[in-house]
Amino acid sequence: MAPIIRTEKLRKVYAVGKERVVALNDVDLAIEKGEFCCIVGQSGSGKSTLLNMLAGLEKPTRGKVFIGKHEISAMTETELARFRQAHLGFIFQSYNLLPTMTAAENVALPLLFKGVDKATRMRLARKELKNMGLLGRANHLPTEMSGGQQQRVGIARAFVSSPKVIFADEPTGNLDSMTSKQVLYRMLEMSKHQKVTFVMVTHEPELAQCADRIVTILDGKVQSSVVQDDETKQKYRDELFADMDGNLDIGGAASKETPAAAQS
Ligand SMILES: Nc1ncnc2c1ncn2[C@@H]1O[C@H](COP(=O)(O)OP(=O)(O)OP(=O)(O)O)[C@@H](O)[C@H]1O
Ligand SMILES: [Mg+2]
């Protein structure tokens, strides 16, 4: 099967004054459809830079990024914006919520871009907020919520339009450990049942070891890209989710309602 995300000799050089920082150096990487992929590595190794290139948020200095058969590194800004709205979801460490909109309005935003009617948008946004344990905050503004709550709104917003690929830069960095687990659990369910591909940067080894693939970045290069066998990852998932309520088997049944307009 062809990978859903692929890079060819990806390179990113930042100019800082007279100095040049090689943040990524000839990265060749492939991620399969439906994989839950974690990117790990030391601070400054190039994880966020890589994620931003894969998600089309920044242009590479050299090299190519493909999502499916689309070379996103060759798209214009307008084409990229349209492609991102149609197919990709993002969870940022700094939330990026719109300050004048309520939690529900923020979550509903990606559906607006997809032309979903208002009643359906708000219904799906509330459902996603409920999944994040935040229905009681649906009408709150971002400033009226804690950091962890805002992060969960950002996650609900990434999930609501059922994108094919979701990129997340340390999405659990501001969450307590139980909430982190619940968020990871929901992501793993989505990757399993809806074949959503996840690329998540994390500093937390106990989360990374639950992934299908672990990519380690060192000094702007891929040091390793390891696919974990089922037994190993199931063991780590059982350990991590042992004190959680509900079904621990990630292969268990789960359902998610999707608006017709968001399916593609
Ligand atoms: N906009 C920028 N301008 C100049 N240098 C940058 C820029 N963004 C990143 N860098 C540099 O590129 C390198 C990789 O940065 P990056 O943010 O990708 O690291 P990271 O692995 O995500 O680190 P962390 O775990 O601390 O988030 C670092 O040396 C950083 O200083
Ligand atoms: Mg980073």
TrEMBL record:
- SUPFAM superfamilies hit by this protein: P-loop containing nucleoside triphosphate hydrolases
Q: Name one GO molecular function term.
A: ATP hydrolysis activity
Q: Which UniProt keywords apply?
A: ATP-binding, Nucleotide-binding, Transport
Q: What InterPro entries would the database entry show?
A: AAA+_ATPase (IPR003593), ABC_transporter-like_ATP-bd (IPR003439), ABC_transporter-like_CS (IPR017871), MacB-like_ATP-bd (IPR017911), P-loop_NTPase (IPR027417)
Q: Which domain of life is it from?
A: Bacteria
Task: List the record's Gene Ontology CC terms alphabetically.
Answer: membrane protein complex
Domain named ABC transporter: which ranges? 5-244
Keyword ATP-binding found: yes
Gene3D superfamilies with a match to the protein in the record: P-loop containing nucleotide triphosphate hydrolases (3.40.50.300)
Pfam families given in the database record = ABC_tran
Q: Which family does it belong to?
A: Belongs to the ABC transporter superfamily.
Name the UniProt record assigns to this protein = ABC transporter, ATP-binding protein
